[in-house]
Specification:
The chain is mainly beta. The protein is built from two helices and four strands.
Length: about 400
């Protein structure tokens, strides 16, 4: 944080020192140059005025400049280091020995047994039986029936239809418009001014011990720069270096009228078309059906049923149970005990002391080079305008003495 504040302070100081000095407005109309010995071209300016135009001088300022430097700094780095230590570990030692193992084996054995089983033997025989059937007998029968005969007649009938037509109606609707409105807004304006600043002390008077810079300082003759005067002594002593002008900011808030567009709602009448259906009566001819009863005769065929007894024969199959005998082979597993020798390995825990390597991170202080951005103030020579005016003569533009002209016209 302290480095950040230092860089910020240096940047602000360099920006203030590198500010350009604004040239004054040449209101007197002079075209001469103090360095070239030119004379004032304004009519009414006295010939003895010498020079009344602004001159320039060289001034050294400090400008911030960022450079990259290589600096050495110390850091801590961890280096892997291998070390040894003795530990006690358990080691399994194998021991092999021969033992007798008893095991059981299932040995298959083929055998035969006699089984008795039952068999269903089919026997077919013929059986007779009587049954009754219904035999149909048909006959004709006369019958009378009544039917409705339709009779069609024409008849006039009225009906109503809805006939559409268009009507124009009046209504009111809300309309939104943008209306300009004048308002007052607060803005921030810089109302600063220019002022003269002497960057360093002045020379001492030649004939007295008083300092050349004082409250009664003013323009003097012949030097070509701003003159200082202390009382009645050393009237021709110049101050070194010459004063410069700077802009002093003064931000103020002012009320400014502005025009904004605001929306407002208003009602307005309008016309629209509506389709309306009106009832209308019409006449049409339709056919009307009326019914008339008629008696008719027809012959129907009637079926009567007569019961008859009949005889039929059909085969019947019956099953007879018989016992039979058969020999069935089968296999039986018989258990047998046997003995065999096996090699068995047993492990015994033995304490063993051994050396183990392990790695540790050992911190070391290392000096390394890093790139750092550094802000430095570099001297720079710039050309700035300075003011010089005549002494005792009158300016033809503002009709004031050249001493007052420098302040009135801006020189």
């Amino acid at each position: 944080m302290s480095m950040y504040r230092y860089l910020l302070t240096v940047a602000v100081l360099g920006a203030a020192l590198s500010a350009q000095v604004a040239p004054a407005d040449d209101s007197c109309g002079c075209t001469g140059s103090a360095s070239s010995g030119g004379a004032c071209s304004q009519q009414g300016c006295a010939p003895s005025c010498g020079t009344c135009c602004p001159a320039t001088c060289q001034q050294n300022i400090m400008v911030p400049e960022y450079v990259t430097e290589t600096r050495k700094c110390k850091t801590i780095q961890c280096v892997a280091e291998t070390r040894e230590r003795k530990i006690t570990a358990c080691q399994c030692v194998p021991e092999t020995k021969t033992i007798n193992v008893n095991y059981t084996v299932m040995v298959p054995e083929n055998r035969t047994r006699t089984e008795t089983y039952c068999v269903q033997t089919p026997v077919v025989r013929t059986v007779s039986r009587q049954y009754q059937v219904q035999v149909p007998v048909y006959r004709d029968v006369q019958r009378t029936y009544t039917v409705c005969t339709p009779i069609w007649t024409d008849q006039a009938q009225e009906y109503t239809v809805m006939v559409p037509h268009t009507e124009t109606r009046q209504a009111t609707r809300m309309v939104t418009r943008c209306v300009p409105v004048s308002e007052t807004r607060t803005v921030c304006v810089d109302r600063g001014h220019w002022e003269d600043v002497c960057s360093s002390g002045c020379n001492s008077c030649n004939s007295c011990s008083a300092t050349a810079c004082g409250s009664s300082c003013g323009c003097d003759t012949g030097c070509g720069c701003r003159m200082r005067r202390c009382g009645a002594c050393c009237e021709s002593t110049c101050c070194s270096p010459c004063p410069t002008r700077r802009w002093v900011c003064n931000y103020v808030q002012e009320q400014v009228p502005v025009t904004v567009m605001k929306t407002e709602c208003a009602s307005e009448p309008y016309q629209y078309q509506v389709t309306v259906c009106q009832p209308e009566k019409r006449t049409c001819t339709v056919k009307v059906c009326s019914y008339k009863n008629e008696t008719r005769t027809c012959t129907d065929r009637v079926c009567d049923y007569k019961c008859e007894t009949r005889t039929c024969s059909y085969p019947v199959t019956e099953c007879k149970v018989e016992q039979r005998t058969r020999e069935v082979p089968y296999t039986v597993c018989v258990a047998q005990c046997r003995t065999r020798q096996e090699q068995v390995t047993e492990y015994r825990q033995v304490a063993v002391e051994k050396t183990e390597q392990y790695t540790v991170m050992v911190p070391h202080e290392v000096e390394q080079e890093v790139q750092v951005q550094v802000c430095r103030l570099v001297p720079k020579t710039v050309t700035v305008p300075v003011d010089s005016c005549c002494n005792g003569a009158s300016c033809g533009s503002c009709q004031k003495s050249f001493r007052s002209c420098c302040r009135h016209c801006g020189y």
